[in-house]
Amino acid sequence: MSQILLRFPKDPAAGALPPNQVPQRTAALLVFLFTAAVAAAHEPIPGYWYRLQVKHSGLYLGSPSGNVGPNAPARQVGNVTLERAWNQSWTPVAAGGGWFRLQSLNGSYLDVTWASKDNNAPVGHAGFSNHEGGAAQLWKFVHQSGGWYRLQVKHSQKYLDVTSGDMRPNAPVAQSARSAWQGGAAQLWQFVPSLNGRARSSTPAKGPLEIFDVESYTDFADPNRQLGFLSFTITQDVPVTVQVREDGRSVQKLTGLRCSNLNEAGTRYSYKAPLHSLRQSTTYEYTITARDLKSGKVVSRSGVFRSAVRLANPVLVPQ
Predict the structure, then answer these.
(1) What DSSP state is assigned to residue 9?
(2) In a domain, 67, yes or no
(3) The whole model's pTM is what?
């Protein structure tokens, strides 16, 4: 956010301003600029990821059994470990006019099924839609108190709601009229920083040893430090070294990593390298290195990722 420099003028009639006094016109300007700066500071951050937690049950907007494919229904689901948070992670995509699409990690969008305007019409995943300007996928984050939001969909002006205020995991999520039940708690959602800072590099395997499908995730271990991991796939079960650097300075080096999973054909091996004590909102470089068992050739893959940023109110559209 750009800095604003305020110069407080002297009152010609009164001479120099006494300490701790500001003319009323300057104070009004200060309040206006502060309000604008706060609003700007809480704009959605492209590429940053959040879990949507509903107030009445404390559960999260997700999909049952990890199904995030087209037409998969949305549900409130239990909290998961960092490694599985893709099932609950959403990023706001600005669409203009204070409206946003909510995109999941597989690229689908939160959508009111068949663009229904009925009360309790189901909500789920769908591909990008321009039907009526995409109105059944456009959401406004209506700020309430305490960092909670109602999510209002454009085409019907209804709100994202856990059906009947159900407290159980896998309860359906739908659109419904504004509700005051328990203070609207089944329609109140907060944005919890999740897989923000996610980066992905995917390259098809070509040679006998290839490193591909590299993804980075970061999350909060405590208010100042973060944990996360690099996951990737290679074509041989060989020891791997992962080096992480900040401004050329090594901050973590992991050696001798072995695969955690492989496909049935034995040609794809999944690796996961844990990351610790990362600083928030920081760009890191990584290098993954492995040696081909047959040729002895060293293969490496390098890239960058940016760690997450902690926001008190991650997404805000001023009302």
Answers:
(1) -
(2) yes
(3) 0.54
Q: What is the DSSP string of 42-64?
A: TS--TT--EEEEETTT--EEE-G
- The SS3 assignment for 288 reads strand
Q: How confident is the model at residue 12 (pLDDT cuts 50, 70, 90)?
A: very low
H or E element: which one contains 37? Answer: helix 24-41
Q: Which two tokens stand for residue 151?
A: 């999510």
Coil, helix or strand for 276?
strand
* CA–CA dist 173, 168 (Å, integer): 12
Residues 236 and 295: their CA atoms lie apart, in Å, by 12
CATH number of the domain residue 93 falls in: 2.80.10.50
Q: What is the pLDDT of residues 62-75, one digit of tens each?
A: 887 656 666 788 99
Distance CA 28, CA 198 (A): 41
Structural domain tally of the chain?
2
Calpha distance 18→15 (Å, rounded): 9
Please indicate, yes or no, whether residues 133 and 221 belong to a single structural domain of this protein.
Answer: no
The CATH number of whichever domain residue 289 belongs to comes to 2.60.40.10
End position of a domain, from candidates 154, 173, 193: 193
Q: Which residue has the tokens 């209804």?
A: 158
The answer to whether residue 27 sits within a structural domain is: no
CB atoms within 10 A of CB 250: 10
End-to-end CA distance of the chain: give it in Å, rounded.
21
Domain boundary among 144, 163, 193: 193
Q: Which two tokens stand for residue 153?
A: 């969909």
CA separation for the pair 136, 130 (Å, rounded): 9
**Tokens in use for 194?**
């999740």
Gap between the Cα atoms of 33 and 12, Å rounded: 25
pLDDT (0 to 100) of residue 203: 54
